[in-house]
């Protein structure tokens, strides 16, 4: 997974946990140590019982589907390496997903959030640049924290992003994000950089080192509390808002897919439901015989 699929450390850790839990389930059922579990114990029936146990424990369908996906990937690997002659769980159905519409912010809420940081402080200049960049580009939080200074091209107004699976894409910057980034780089970053060793990272913490994804979440939480938005807002909420606002204003689905770095168009299609909800709301509010 690391070499061939360029999987992140987080993905590797999650898959390892998911597989270890399945082996622990099998070992408990058979009264043996997890290390003694052999491929002969992996069957359609044993996996169905594992799914049933997870359901009894109250795990969500999304969690169950992810754990099953990790197991499917592992079984396919065993088949490819001729450790298994055929796939014993090929007929196991994935739990049907409850597709939740992603949360997003309205443009008025976006404006409030962008104006929340105190631009008289170096950290405030940095935070404004973070918020504007997330909303302008639709980046994942991990993509944002991995940005280095050379990844921003102010001449062409784009950001070079290294996405999932090590896939690179180019995303437009936008005038507001450009303005905020320039202010941060010219008047804010230098004060943060002076507190640590030289780092190529675009966004630095108070010690002059690269900001973590948790730090980005904490920054957003701080400003959400300041402006009293009555909903949970994460870095991904800004990504959802980016996609929703583009589609609501006439962007085509294929372009939004490219900007978000989605491999499958079906992943992007969930945002069309948001657009339909908006159309329904407008109809409800304006039609005389609603």
Q: How would you describe this structure in keywords?
A:
hpI Integrase, Chain A; 3 strands; 3-stranded antiparallel beta sheet; 2 domains; 55% helix; 290 residues; 13 helices; mainly alpha
Describe, in plain words, how this protein is organized in 3D.
Its main location: cytoplasm. With 290 residues, this protein is mostly helical. It contains 13 helices and three strands. It has a three-stranded antiparallel beta sheet with strand order 1-2-3, with no helix packed on it. Strand 1 and strand 2 form a beta hairpin.
Reconstruct the topology from this structure.
Elements: H1 9-30, H2 44-56, H3 61-80, H4 107-114, H5 122-137, H6 141-145, E1 152-153, E2 158-162, E3 168-172, H7 175-187, H8 189-193, H9 213-227, H10 235-248, H11 253-260, H12 265-268, H13 270-286
Antiparallel strand pairs: 1-2, 2-3
Helix pairs in contact: 1-3, 5-7, 5-10, 10-13
How many domains make up the coordinates? 2
**In terms of structural class, how would the helical and strand content be classed?**
mainly alpha
- Please state the overall shape, judged from the principal axes of the Cα atoms: globular
**Percent in strands:** under 5%
Neighbour order of strands in the largest sheet = 1-2-3
In terms of per-residue confidence, which ranges show pLDDT below 50 for 5 or more consecutive residues?
none
Mean pLDDT: 87
For the record, the CATH architecture of the largest domain stands as Orthogonal Bundle
> How much helicity do the residues have?
55-70%
CATH topology of the largest domain: hpI Integrase, Chain A
The rounded distance between the terminal residues' Cα atoms is: 53 Å
Computed over alpha carbons, the radius of gyration is 23 Å
CATH class of the largest domain: Mainly Alpha
């Amino acid at each position: 997974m690391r070499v061939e699929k360029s999987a992140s450390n987080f993905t590797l850790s999650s898959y390892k946990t998911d597989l270890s839990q399945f082996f622990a389930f099998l070992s408990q059922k058979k009264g043996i140590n997890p290390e003694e579990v052999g491929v002969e114990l992996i069957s359609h029936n044993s996996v169905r019982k594992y799914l049933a146990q997870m359901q009894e424990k109250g795990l969500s369908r999304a969690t169950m589907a992810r754990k099953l996906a990790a197991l499917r990937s592992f079984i396919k690997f065993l088949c490819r390496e001729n450790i298994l002659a055929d796939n014993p769980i090929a007929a196991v159905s994935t739990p049907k997903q409850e597709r939740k519409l992603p949360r997003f912010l309205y443009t008025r809420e976006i404006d409030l959030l962008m104006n929340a940081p105190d631009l008289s402080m170096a950290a405030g200049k940095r935070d404004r640049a973070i918020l504007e960049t997330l909303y302008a580009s639709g980046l994942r939080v991990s993509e944002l924290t991995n940005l280095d200074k050379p990844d921003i091209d102010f001449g062409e107004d784009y950001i070079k992003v290294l996405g999932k699976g090590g896939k690179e894409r180019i995303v437009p910057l936008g005038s507001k994000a450009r303005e905020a980034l320039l202010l941060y780089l010219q008047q804010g970053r230098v004060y943060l950089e002076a507190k640590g060793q030289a780092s190529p990272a675009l966004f630095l913490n108070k010690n002059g080192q690269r900001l973590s994804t948790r730090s980005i979440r904490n920054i957003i939480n701080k400003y959400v509390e300041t402006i009293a938005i009555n909903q949970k807002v994460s870095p991904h909420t800004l990504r959802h808002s980016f996609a929703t606002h583009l589609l609501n204003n006439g962007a085509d689905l294929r372009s939004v897919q490219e900007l978000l770095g989605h491999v499958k168009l079906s992943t992007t299609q969930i945002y069309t439901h948001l657009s339909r909800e908006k159309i329904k709301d407008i109809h409800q509010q304006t039609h005389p015989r609603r």
